[in-house]
Specification:
By secondary structure, the chain is mostly helical. The protein is built from 16 helices and five strands. Strands 1-3-2 form a three-stranded mixed β-sheet. The protein is globular and about 85 Å long.
Length: about 375
């Protein structure tokens, strides 16, 4: 009887190891296997993912706290306790076997998390690129065009400032009807559907980290919720919301989220338009020379200049440069690992999209057939 029990235990243990190995292998294949963007677009990004987001985000919106907090803190606590236990057992048994077993379990758990990440949101990194989705001018923008776009952003800021401040900004952007309507219109133009649900901007225990690293917000890829920097000014929250909502619509790439967020803002009411043009001014400022940046700054009127200074003061007052730099280096590696070749430089690619895309009246982008191969598209 005991012998049969021992054999059963051995079979269970071996089966467990096989399952762990299989899970890890699946994660490696998922990470490395080449998948055509058109396949991801057709069978995930426009079918499976919208169905997931339509359920998960409304549930996340029901509560004010971020699910991301316990989803990250609890595993960290469990890991700390498991490491302590494994090290203790290794000392008692005078063997590295407990530590090896823990490493295998941690690797398996990480593989499961990665597979869940891909299934819930992460595969959107591999969908059809915005540059293959839009009708674009063949030539990249010149430095003169970039500078001209900067002056256009300033002209709009100067003209919208007084009315935007008179009306003010909705504390919860989900209740800005014009913004939500524009969000749906942009989705419909780019995807042929408008199903993504706007996310509630939530506070998080990572708020201090956002402040120290100058991160304005992020999307939790598991609960499909929006986490926002607690120090954001009202005039910033609208664009940050539109940017993160773009992620919720499945546009994982940062430049694409900036593009969708910008179009959403300028298609909405005056306060949102001001927020969008102000954000574009910042993005252009990163792409021009110091001399050109001074030319742009000299053209900013007193009102918008005060807003720019207020944002600058916010960023400088809370940041920790060493942590900010380290954080952005890590995020750069994360983006590259998810096949965003430009890394954090992808943020600035929105300028390229705006200047090369063809627009109809009302800043509605002209879309081409995303089901066709990019090489065969016009």
């Amino acid at each position: 009887m005991r012998e049969g029990y021992s054999i059963a235990v051995i079979i269970v243990l071996v089966a467990g190891q096989i399952v762990k190995g299989f899970v890890i292998l699946c994660a490696l294949v998922a990470a490395l296997a080449p998948i055509r963007p058109e396949t991801v677009e057709r069978y995930y990004s426009t079918t499976v993912y919208p169905a997931i987001q339509a359920v998960v985000t409304p549930v996340s919106n029901l509560v004010p706290f971020a699910f991301f907090d316990p989803l990250t803190v609890l595993p960290a606590i469990v890991l700390f306790m498991a490491v302590a236990l494994a090290v203790s057992r290794a000392r008692v048994e005078r063997s590295v076997r407990p530590v090896g077993a823990l490493l295998l379990s941690v690797t398996t758990f990480a593989a499961i998390v990665y597979l869940v990440f891909l299934g819930i949101w992460g595969l959107n990194y591999r969908r059809v690129a915005m540059s293959d989705r839009l009708a674009l001018e063949p030539s990249p923008p010149t430095s003169e065009q970039v500078l001209k776009l900067g002056f256009e952003a300033i002209r709009r800021m100067n003209g919208l400032y007084a009315e935007a401040h008179r009306i003010g900004w909705e504390p919860d952007p989900r209740f800005d009807k014009d913004l939500v309507k524009a969000y749906g219109l942009v989705q419909d133009r780019l995807l042929g559907t408008a199903t993504a649900v706007p996310g509630r901007l939530k506070s998080s225990i990572y708020g201090a980290y956002f402040r120290w690293t100058t991160v304005d917000g992020m999307v939790d890829p598991f609960a499909l919720e929006v986490l926002a920097n607690p120090d954001l000014l009202p005039l910033e929250r609208t664009f940050v919301a539109a940017h993160e909502w773009a992620h919720l619509a499945g546009f994982a790439d940062e430049s694409e989220a900036n593009f969708v967020g910008f179009l959403t803002c300028i298609g909405a009411g005056v306060p949102a338009q001001y927020s969008g043009w102000l954000s574009l001014y910042w993005l252009v400022g990163v792409e021009v020379t110091p001399e050109e940046r001074k030319q742009l700054w000299d053209a900013v009127a007193e009102g918008p200049r005060q807003d720019v200074q207020a944002i600058t003061d916010r960023l400088q007052s809370g940041q920790l440069p060493f942590l900010r730099n380290a954080s952005w280096r890590v995020y750069d590696r994360y983006l590259r690992a998810n096949r965003v070749e430009e890394g954090i430089r992808s943020y600035g690619q929105v300028i390229n999209l705006i200047l090369r895309a063809r627009f109809e009246d009302g800043w509605l982008p002209v879309r081409r057939d995303v089901d066709s191969s990019p090489s065969s598209s016009p």
